[in-house]
Design brief:
about 15% strand, six-stranded mixed sheet, five-stranded parallel sheet, globular, 15 strands, single chain, alpha/beta, about 500 residues
């Protein structure tokens, strides 16, 4: 098997190993690392059908992370996908109301980010050893709600690492916020910024791009890396669950071998649906990739027109993890659609930074025809949650509700009868108030945990440990800052001031 190397989407770095790309997070030129080719699966879907999640993870990840030994990679997988997940199959498929819900929220923080962030600390510390890293790794990340908690849970008290998370004050659900501000671990820090997620994400990217600051930190024994989905070590593990989902449909006799399925993904930063696209190009029989947006429908407009335009109002919705106007991982699709032309990708990203918009060519749009954009309003989101609950008793969160509503509209408009997997990205308990308002209407108790108890009664699903443990947990993080103060705040946290 030939080794895969990584290069920047903007052309400035090439020949980087997988472990180096994981450690760096972001390329020196501000681009994202991509493999020099997308590998093909070595086993057929029939052969994968009987495998466990852990075995599937190894078969996928070994193809991308070619400088990790078999022993190293298996140790990372075994350390990640263990009893911290509350179901043995890790990512169950649940059939409800004509679709298959891929439940990605059975990890320790009840969101899909656990699927990748459970393994990233293992990959990163292994990569540090492989590359004789003698600096303390500072994980710097922005979150729209779920990445922050999942990253902190993964990296809490991991030797040789620190983690600093920025989240938008008043831009996440109350449960998401409580999960973050109660996080244990002497190496964890959480900061609420006065701004939205795009402000947090832009601020983090600016810190990564500050060469002088990086040099200063290195002299003091620190090096930055990222836990966002801009890190290839986050993206590769996400490919696994789409391979696993198809294999399980086959194993359960729901589809014939080779039968194509569609995948619908509630989309913010574009990493999750990009992972499905990579799975397709590895050989998984996927037809359409249905990109579901909420009212912040910048991706829907992009797939409809070929123009990406972030110059619009930023809307706060009941699906806050999708409240994003700058979808960072879309850059990787742009790069692939430009024929892996770093110069062309860099020019488009420069347009975005300077003018707030860019337009892709007809050829590039043709290469993106696997994608279908759709969006759902808040009202349609609520209606989808209520309808599926009334029809089946199945309760979904507000992000999965967006995907469900978009899938329903797509099926009605296209007449496409293909079986469809919907990525269910969070437990309904993470957004209990919005979910219960969708099911029951107004008039809920003010106390968040009383609402959670009502949701437990309505769903018949036991309250997850992740929620129970924060019911009385002390607040440990109270730091806030303005969007212009992020760099200074990092310096304070690291004791540099």
């Amino acid at each position: 098997m030939m080794n895969i190397s990584y290069q920047s989407t903007r052309g400035g770095e090439q020949g980087v190993t997988a472990s180096q790309a994981i450690l760096k997070g972001l390329a020196c030129d501000g681009g994202l690392f991509m493999p020099d080719r997308i590998p093909r699966l070595e086993l057929s879907m029939k052969e994968l059908a009987g495998k466990t999640y852990q075995e599937t993870a190894y078969e996928v990840m070994k193809l991308f992370l070619t400088d990790f030994t078999k022993e190293e990679l298996k140790a990372c997988i075994d350390g990640a996908y263990d009893s911290k997940f509350d179901t043995e199959v890790i990512a169950p498929l649940v059939k409800a109301d004509g679709a298959y819900y891929l439940e990605l929220f059975h990890g320790s923080t009840i969101a899909f980010k656990d699927m990748a962030l459970s393994i990233l600390p293992h990959l990163m510390t292994t990569a540090a050893r492989k590359n004789h890293m003698d600096k303390e790794i500072v994980i710097l990340t922005a979150t729209s709600g779920d990445t922050g908690k999942a990253a902190m849970a993964g990296f809490a008290d991991v030797p040789g690492t620190r983690i600093i998370v920025f989240y938008p004050k008043d831009g996440v659900s109350r449960i998401q916020e409580i999960q973050m501000v109660t996080q244990k671990g002497d190496n964890t820090a959480v900061v609420a910024i006065h701004g939205n997620f795009d402000d947090a994400q832009t601020g983090v990217k600016q810190i990564f791009g500050d060469k002088e600051f990086a040099k200063e930190l290195e002299e003091k024994g620190f090096v930055f890396s990222s836990a966002n989905s801009i890190n290839i070590g986050r993206l590769v593990p996400q490919v696994v669950y789409y391979v696993y989902a198809y294999a399980q449909l086959l194993n359960n006799g729901e589809i014939q071998d080779g039968e194509k399925i569609n995948v619908t993904v509630p989309t913010g930063n574009f990493g999750n649906i990009l992972a499905a696209y990579l799975a397709k190009h590895m050989g998984v029989p996927i037809d359409k990739l249905i990109c579901a947006s909420n009212d912040n429908k910048v991706l829907y407009d992009f797939f409809r027109t070929g123009t990406y335009d972030r110059k619009r109002d930023f809307l706060l919705t009941i699906s806050p993890s999708m409240d994003i106007l700058i979808s960072s991982n879309l850059e990787r699709l742009i790069y692939l659609s430009a024929g892996c032309d770093g110069e062309k990708t860099a020019a488009l990203m420069d347009d975005l930074a300077r003018t707030g918009a860019y337009t892709v060519s007809g050829d590039m749009r043709e290469r993106m025809k696997d994608f279908v954009g759709g969006f759902a309003t808040e009202q349609e989101d609520r209606e989808a949650i209520k309808e599926v609950y009334q029809n089946t008793g199945y309760v979904m969160d507000t992000h999965t509700g967006v995907a469900c509503a978009v899938y329903g509209k797509y099926r009605q408009e296209s007449g496409d009868p293909r079986k469809t997997v919907i990525a269910s990205t969070a437990s309904p308990y993470k957004f209990s108030r919005s979910v219960m308002e969708a099911i029951r209407g107004e008039g809920l108790p003010e106390d968040e945990f009383q609402v959670i108890d009502l949701l437990s009664q309505a769903s018949g699903v036991e309250i997850p440990q992740a929620v129970e443990e924060i019911r009385k947990a002390p607040i440990r993080h109270t730091r806030e800052c303005g969007r212009e103060e992020m760099k200074r705040t990092v310096e304070e946290i690291l004791g540099l001031l």
